[in-house]
């Protein structure tokens, strides 16, 4: 474990690379963001749906059997869902404490735990597991604690999720492997 | 989450409710490690900032006998970091199997568990503080969440 600490202190988890590459497109977005920096996203389904649409993602608010609302969105021909946690109940809507991005892949056999563990070791922000059906699931929690978040920062969270889920998709279907370079001190940052 | 009304009504009442939120909460990002250090200390936990030439900074802390790190990431030349990672691991629990860690990831939110290259169970939580960051209360709350997850993880790992 101690070496792990050192490795991380050197700044090299693969996920650093993930977000680094997302940040590569940053200048243009930073300019846009500067104009829109006063915007806020409230943790409730309509506002989250609007923020997804502003990021050119579809967003359809649905209600499940128990009356909880969720959003169906998508990216690169894959559907993903957004769930809401700890929202006020009753006739008055109150802000939710947190949201969760969700995607699951059925591959027709139990996904290997070794591979899901390797994913969790190398990629930040998400939480991956094999569910009761043997499917590979990826979730990413964003905690609002009931308060609004700046539109810039929420858009950044959307971007992290989209990058993460598309890499998870590749990983699950073995179109890509975790990159061993990320575990070698000194090489993880750029690739 | 549940509501008994149509969307438009909910949106309207939500707007009214949210109007009471102060327009300008103080935002905290990761560009100044000392700000994060003070927030950790405000929980009553020790915090030592470590910044070495050529490395991204990190904070060493501990709470209730559990040591943890707060790593500054996505930095530019070790400065102006944009994200944080809270990190802890146990070096005396190499017998924890992957089924058990998978169960953690299935049931818990916010933090990710895995077995590292040494066979040690690790817990990590990532927080994006890009741009102006999050309201100060949220950053503080993220440490409360982390503290509660660390406690749960210890129980989870050592429960026989």
3D architecture notes:
The complex is a heterodimer of chains A (191) and B (160). Chain A has 191 residues and is of the alpha+beta class. Chain A has helices spanning 2-9, 14-23, 26-36, 45-54, 113-122, 151-172, and strands at 40-41, 60-63, 69-75, 78-85, 98-105, 127-130, 136-143, 149-150. In chain A, the strands form two sheets. Chain A has a six-stranded antiparallel sheet with strand order 2-3-4-5-7-6. Chain A has a two-stranded antiparallel ribbon with strand order 1-8. Chain A is globular and about 45 Å long. Mean pLDDT of chain A is 79; it is low at 1-36 and 179-191. Chain B is an alpha+beta fold. Chain B has one domain (26-158): Yope Regulator, Chain: A. Chain B has four helices and eight strands. In chain B, the strands form two sheets. In chain B, strands 2-3-4-5-7-6 form a six-stranded antiparallel sheet. A two-stranded antiparallel sheet of chain B has the order 1-8. Chain B is globular. The relative contact order of chain B is 0.16. The model of chain B is unreliable at 1-16 (pLDDT under 50). The interface between A and B is large, with 71 and 65 residues.
Topology (elements, then pairings):
The complex is a heterodimer of chains A (191) and B (160).
Chain A (H helix, E strand, L loop, with lengths): L1 H8 L4 H10 L2 H11 L3 E2 L3 H10 L5 E4 L5 E7 L2 E8 L12 E8 L7 H10 L4 E4 L5 E8 L5 E2 H22 L19
Antiparallel strand pairs in A: 1-8, 2-3, 3-4, 4-5, 5-7, 6-7
Chain B lengths: L6 H12 L8 E2 L4 H10 L4 E4 L7 E6 L2 E8 L9 E7 L8 H10 L4 E4 L5 E8 L5 E2 H23 L2
Antiparallel strand pairs in B: 1-8, 2-3, 3-4, 4-5, 5-7, 6-7
Helix pairs in contact in B: 2-4
Shape type of chain A: globular
Indicate the low-confidence ranges of chain B by residue numbers: 1-16
- Helical fraction of chain A equals 25-40%
| Biggest interface, chains and residue tallies | A-B, 71 and 65 residues
Q: What is the structure about, briefly put?
A:
The complex is a heterodimer of chains A (191) and B (160). By secondary structure, chain A is an alpha+beta fold.
